[in-house]
Structures are given as C-alpha cells and as structure tokens.
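Reminder: ligand-aware prediction takes two inputs, not one.
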Amino acid sequence: MTSAARTPLEGRVAVVTGSGQGLGLSYARELARQGAAVVINDVDQQAADAAVDSIVEDGGRASAVVAPVGSTETATALVEGAVEAFGRLDILVTNAGILRDRSLLKMTDEDFDAVIGVHLRGTFVCVREAFRHFKENGVAGRIITIGSPTGQYGTFGQTNYAAAKAGIVGMVRTWAQEMARAGVTVNTVVPVAATAMTETVPYFRAAVEAERAGEPVPAFFRRDLGFGSAADVSGVVAHLASDEASDISGQVIGVGGDRLQIFSHPQPVATEYEDGGWTREAVARRLPALIAEHRQPVGETLPPLPEELQSQDAS
Ligand SMILES: NC(=O)c1ccc[n+]([C@@H]2O[C@H](COP(=O)([O-])OP(=O)(O)OC[C@H]3O[C@@H](n4cnc5c(N)ncnc54)[C@H](O)[C@@H]3O)[C@@H](O)[C@H]2O)c1
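Here is what comes back for the chain with nicotinamide-adenine-dinucleotide:
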C-alpha cells in the first residue's frame, strides 16, 4: 500500500460478503493488506463502517455496501458498488452466513429457508452476477466460496446448514467447468476458527478463551483440530485471489490454526456388475458384503479433549 514494492493484489478490487466481523473481516483486511481495494458488505451498518475504517487506518482502500445477501438485487448492488467505488471487480468472496441449528423435527420451514437463503441462494446470485461482470469485461476473476466441515461430514442439528454448505461445493464443481474458458477460477475454502459462530461450542471453549485473553491457542486446537484465529484462514483466501493461483479451480481447501487440508470430491469406492441388471435378489446377495467392506462413516470424529483443556462446566 504505502510500500514501493508491488503487492500481489495491487490494482485489484474485491467484494467480501458478511465482512463486518469474524472471518469475513479477516479476509477483507488481508486482501487489503495484499493491495486490493475492498467492498465490505454486511447487514450491520456499524460493523461495516468500523471494518472500512480499520482498513483505511492501515493505509488500504475500502467502502461499504450494507445490504442482506440472498437476493439478486443485493448481488447486483455489490458488483455495481465495486465498479462505482473502485472502477472494477476482480475478486468475490461469498462469506456471509447465519445459523439456525435445530434437530430435524424441531427445524421449522423458516429455519430452513433462512439458512438456505443466505448461504446457498446468496452464493448462487452473487457468483452469477460477478461471473457475468467478469465475462462481459474479460476479467480473469477469482471466486472464493465458503464451505464448512458440516457440508463435508454432516453435523447433528444442522440439516439446513449441511444442505447449504454441501450445495455450495456442488455448485463449485459445476462452475469450475463452466468458468474455465473465461479464465475465472472458483474454489471453496472450508474454515475453522474462533468467531461468534463457534464461541458457544463447549468443545472449543479453552481455545476461544485463550484467543479472547490474547494468549496463544493450545497446540491441540491449532494442530489436531485445525482450530485457531480468523486470521489463520485469510492467507489461503488471499492466495486463491492472486495471479499465482490461476491454475487452481474446483478445489475444496480446508484451513484452520496450523492445519491445511485438501478435500476429495466424492468418487465410487466400489464398483460391481451384474449381467442383466440388479434385481432385488441380486442386491440382497451382494450388497451386505460390499457395504461391510466399504461402509462410509458419517459425521466428523473429533479427538477427545485432553483433560487440562476441559473446562469444569463443559458438557
Ligand atoms: N467460524 C467457523 O469456524 C466457521 C466454520 C465453517 C464455516 N464458517 C463459515 O464462515 C462464514 C463466516 O462465519 P463467521 O464464523 O465469521 O460468522 P460471524 O457470525 O462472526 O460473521 C458472519 C457475518 O455475516 C453477516 N451476515 C449475516 N447474514 C448476512 C446477510 N444476509 N448479508 C450480509 N451479511 C450477513 C453477519 O452480520 C456477520 O458480520 C460463514 O459462511 C460460516 O458459515 C465458519
């Protein structure tokens, strides 16, 4: 920014949705630090203004579009906001999100629609409008969508969120094919970090408390669980946004704390043939042994918390 050395994202313009706080703010600040001008988006005007101020105070360029992600109207306003404020758009990070956790029988239609609306529909409309802009203007754009371990493994009480986050990865697999010719990349980052979204999870309490106190997060969290601060996730986002990542598309990259992972896309783990097709009898004869050999686990298996990291009232 003030330094004479060229930064990787100098001259680029980014939109980061839901960037008033948490991970989105961390992505926005890192993109700005790497030279990009950033459009902050949030539903919270105060948080958005504070985010803009923090970037400008550090010598970066930022402006705010306060609007709820989910509609085409907001998606268009974000692209237009970038062009009006900074003359172009190169990078989109679709980070805005909410939770409405309940087990299946307690989950209302409203809980389901709200989460799908912000995460899945919000990602769809924002990416569609950004890609339209990239194609019309010959921009080799960078799209970074945000997934979750829940979308990869499933989590008790998160039907709506699992559907949205798995759906985002499904869209990315499709978009990587559709966008390749235009030179636009699209990937999913699966973050894990101490934010408002995770601070109430008892399992993470010792890590969140350390983070709040400005103390180092215990190595168990940073390495074994891949759980650290929001800043730990932003390097991957900034790299995927850069020229250096022009050959990375359609990938799902997990990051948190000291850990980085590449997720596989689903592939068959067993293939069998039955001449003439699979009657019920043929299935009954063959499937039990096949499943016994290849059964897939569901849910994420977390290691037991070491005793010294368990808080007294953690359930
Ligand atoms: N924190 C984690 O460990 C974790 C793990 C996996 C995935 N994620 C994902 O990362 C993203 C950010 O999560 P976070 O932990 O920083 O959460 P957060 O609640 O701290 O921040 C979310 C931000 O999005 C904003 N927002 C909510 N609805 C919006 C809308 N309709 N339009 C615009 N902004 C909106 C909120 O005001 C808030 O500023 C989410 O997509 C979340 O699902 C987080």
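Strands lie at 13-16, 37-42, 62-66, 91-94, 142-146, 185-191, 252-256, 259-262. Residues 17-18, 20-24, 41-44, 47, 68-70, 95-98, 118, 146, 148, 191-193, 195-198 surround nicotinamide-adenine-dinucleotide (CB under 6 Å). We will return to this case in the review session.
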